[in-house]
């Protein structure tokens, strides 16, 4: 496959990047075939950025190993290992973010080390500022950059503590040192990160296809989309208002309180009974059946009076479904999918001993006063059932076929604290004018009206974006190529990025298995050395000079620490994970290899014969690294196309999913 074809095609990734209007967010989408990009997409520019970043990682790695105090030979060895790491090559050849992230992480670490060691250099403060800028850029690329940033902050805190204890410095110089470090490593990255999003939100002010994950207020602040629908809506919700109620939570998907002319089954599949009343669900699409009328329980009127009587915090209301005229109701009947919660229904009087329980108290969670008016879009409201104190809540469970796979809404009697699934906001709103059912149905299908403008501040948008990036899950089900962190250590997983439509040519995210093996071994050896030296030095047994010990500790903080902070946090994450999440940790782990080798060669192996034999082993390992790289290169570059037998021979692990085309 030639380079021109490679640059003009959208590959059959298990995922592709979409512009969701949110930095750091990706949308996972399956594609069944290669799709040509249109001519207005700057494919070359989008591919050259990660390619250049991946290339620049090599000299940065060289300089970093040298800055740690190791020889140029060790630094060259680190470069060779990174150059022949198939997974890093693959990731830098596509429009993906990991190579850019790794570039900024290495630059941040290198710059800080140069600052730390350049005591009297005129460029010292330049390196400190460069480190802060690189940290901000790394976090701006992906939140994963935060892990290395925290590692650097910890290292800087230790060094600053030593500065405070340096009696050769005056009090004024110590204060200046602390202040400059704080400004460069904390204030500057924060200002830059805010600046990234200020530019982002200034340039991307229009609505896009994935805005639904954002709050109604955020969507309404964008040009087009919801802003076009809601522009000029009444701000104050009043008795007689016609509204759509959207859940504040985006899990599993944004949805609206909904009802339709279908009842709960008399009995569920597990034998439990229901009220057989009208279904109330949460529907993830805009629909006329999402409209509800806010009614005053003490009056029969379904229209807004003149002047309007606003609904306030603490008021008791009824919610009448606009299209079916059923009142929102909950009672002591178990919900279909969540039997520990109450069923929510549209009340039907079957003339049985099941009276209506359709009174709800309005609890405005983000109120500023106890009699605050319910605001369109802006107010987050908890609806509390008067009879049972249950809270109207999205359970997140999907109903079976009889519920059209819509999401379950329940009454939660054990609701505690702030839960977004129990918060609702009015998204679309009009003042009702029609008392009769048929006229009202026509009115509900008309666009909203009036002229009130709402805008979110930059900080409100910024904070919401950060929260969504931290909490929104891209997939609720496991992806074919998703994996667990335990599988990354031994590379028991892979990702298929591309398959030629007529041959076995393909591109796979598979690493150099020899590299991964010796990197794992180097981590173990480093830990053993550290745990051996540490107690012996405590007993005043100095196996190595003090300078060598400090050098080994610093290398461990950077390399072993860089691996740990970029790997271990994934065990705490509930998001769908892939092998490429491990690449930043892998980079630091590979840098550990020459550190361990040089230390063993100089400080552990004493005799010339031992060193000569060790050199032969190292040469053999490097040859094995090259052989592994060369054998896997058809899966790295997508050429040449291999036969099915040749591909089967490359399946070195049973868990690898290498694609074989049947002929």
Automatic annotation (TrEMBL):
Q: Where is the signal peptide?
A: none
What is any one of the record's Gene Ontology cellular component terms?
Answer: endoplasmic reticulum membrane
- Record CDD domains: beta-trefoil_MIR_POMT1
- Source domain of life: Eukaryota
Q: What is its EC number?
A: 2.4.1.109
Keywords on this record? Endoplasmic reticulum, Glycosyltransferase, Membrane, Repeat, Transferase, Transmembrane, Transmembrane helix
Does the keyword field hold Transmembrane?
Answer: yes
Q: Where are the transmembrane segments?
A: 48-70, 90-113, 125-141, 147-164, 176-199, 513-531, 552-573, 579-601, 613-632
- Please name the SMART domains in this protein's record: MIR
Entry keyword Ubl conjugation: no
Where, subcellularly, is it found? Endoplasmic reticulum membrane
Coiled-coil stretches are: none
As for membrane topology, the entry says: Multi-pass membrane protein
> Which GO MF term does the entry hold, naming one?
dolichyl-phosphate-mannose-protein mannosyltransferase activity
Q: In which pathway does it act?
A: Protein modification; protein glycosylation
Q: Quickly give the catalysed reaction.
A: a di-trans,poly-cis-dolichyl beta-D-mannosyl phosphate + L-seryl-[protein] = 3-O-(alpha-D-mannosyl)-L-seryl-[protein] + a di-trans,poly-cis-dolichyl phosphate + H(+); a di-trans,poly-cis-dolichyl beta-D-mannosyl phosphate + L-threonyl-[protein] = 3-O-(alpha-D-mannosyl)-L-threonyl-[protein] + a di-trans,poly-cis-dolichyl phosphate + H(+)
- First-tier enzyme category under EC: transferase
Residue ranges occupied by any MIR domain in the UniProt entry: 234-297, 308-365, 370-429
Sequence similarity: Belongs to the glycosyltransferase 39 family.
**PANTHER family from the UniProt entry:** DOLICHYL-PHOSPHATE-MANNOSE--PROTEIN MANNOSYLTRANSFERASE, PROTEIN O-MANNOSYL-TRANSFERASE 1
Name of the protein this chain belongs to: Protein O-mannosyl-transferase 1
């Amino acid at each position: 496959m030639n380079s021109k074809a490679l640059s003009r095609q959208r590959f059959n990734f298990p995922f592709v990047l979409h512009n969701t209007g949110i930095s750091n967010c990706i949308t996972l989408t399956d594609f069944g075939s290669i799709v040509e990009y249109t001519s207005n997409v700057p494919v070359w520019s989008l591919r050259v950025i990660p390619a250049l970043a991946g290339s620049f990682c090599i000299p940065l790695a060289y300089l970093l190993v040298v800055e740690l105090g190791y020889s140029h030979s060790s630094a060259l060895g680190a470069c060779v290992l990174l150059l022949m790491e198939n997974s890093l090559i693959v990731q830098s050849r596509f429009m993906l973010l990991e190579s850019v992230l790794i570039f900024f992480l290495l630059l941040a670490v290198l710059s800080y080390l140069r600052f730390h060691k350049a005591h009297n250099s005129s460029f010292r403060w330049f390196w400190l500022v460069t480190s802060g800028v690189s940290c901000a850029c790394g976090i701006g690329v992906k939140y994963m950059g935060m892990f290395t940033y925290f590692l650097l902050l910890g290292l800087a805190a230790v060094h600053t503590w030593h500065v405070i204890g340096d009696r050769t410095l005056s009090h004024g110089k110590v204060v200046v040192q602390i202040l400059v470090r704080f400004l460069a490593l904390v204030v500057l990255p924060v200002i830059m990160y805010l600046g990234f999003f200020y530019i982002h939100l200034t340039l991307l002010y229009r609505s896009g296809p994935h805005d639904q994950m954002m709050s109604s207020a955020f969507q309404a602040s964008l040009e087009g989309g919801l802003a076009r629908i809601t522009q000029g809506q009444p701000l104050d919700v009043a008795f007689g208002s016609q509204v759509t109620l959207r859940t504040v939570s985006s899990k599993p998907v944004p949805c609206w309180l909904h009802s339709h002319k279908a009842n709960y089954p008399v009995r569920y599949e597990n034998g439990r009974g229901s009220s057989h009343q009208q279904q109330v669900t949460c529907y993830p699409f805009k629909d006329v059946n999402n409209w509800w009328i806010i009614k005053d329980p003490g009056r029969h009127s379904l229209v807004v009076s003149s002047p309007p009587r606003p609904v306030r915090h603490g008021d008791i209301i009824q919610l009448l479904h606009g299209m079916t005229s059923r009142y929102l109701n909950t009672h002591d009947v178990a919900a279909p999918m969540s039997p520990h919660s109450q069923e929510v229904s549209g009340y039907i009087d079957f003339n049985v001993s099941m009276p209506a329980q359709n009174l709800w108290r309005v609890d405005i969670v983000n109120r500023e006063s106890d009699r605050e008016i319910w605001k369109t879009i802006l107010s987050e409201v908890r609806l509390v059932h008067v009879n049972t104190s249950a809270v109207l809540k999205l359970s997140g469970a999907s109903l079976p076929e009889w519920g059209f796979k819509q999401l379950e809404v329940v009454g939660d009697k054990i609701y505690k604290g702030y839960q977004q699934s129990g918060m609702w906001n009015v998204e679309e709103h009009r003042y009702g004018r029609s008392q009769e059912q048929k006229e009202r149905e026509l009115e509900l299908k008309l666009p909203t009206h009036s002229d009130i403008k709402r805008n979110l501040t930059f900080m409100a948008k910024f904070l919401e974006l950060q929260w969504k990036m931290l909490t929104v899950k891209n997939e609720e089900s496991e992806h074919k190529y998703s994996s667990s962190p335990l599988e990354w250590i031994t590379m028991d997983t892979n990702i298929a990025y591309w398959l030629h439509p007529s041959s076995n040519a393909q591109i796979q995210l598979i690493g150099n298995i020899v590299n991964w093996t010796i990197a794992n071994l180097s981590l173990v050896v480093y830990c053993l050395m550290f745990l051996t030296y540490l107690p012996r030095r405590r007993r005043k047994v100095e196996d190595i000079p003090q300078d060598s010990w400090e050098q080994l500790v610093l290398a461990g903080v950077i390399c072993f620490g860089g691996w740990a902070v970029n790997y271990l946090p994934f065990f705490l994450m509930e998001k769908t994970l892939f092998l490429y999440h491990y690449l930043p940790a892998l980079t630091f782990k590979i840098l550990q290899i020459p550190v361990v080798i040089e230390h063993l060669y100089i400080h552990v192996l004493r005799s010339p014969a031992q060193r000569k034999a060790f050199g032969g082993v190292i040469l053999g390992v490097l040859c094995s690294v090259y052989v592994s790289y060369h054998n896997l290169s058809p899966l790295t570059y997508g050429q040449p196309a291999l036969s099915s037998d040749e591909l089967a021979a490359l399946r070195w692990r049973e868990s690898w999913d290498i694609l074989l085309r049947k002929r």
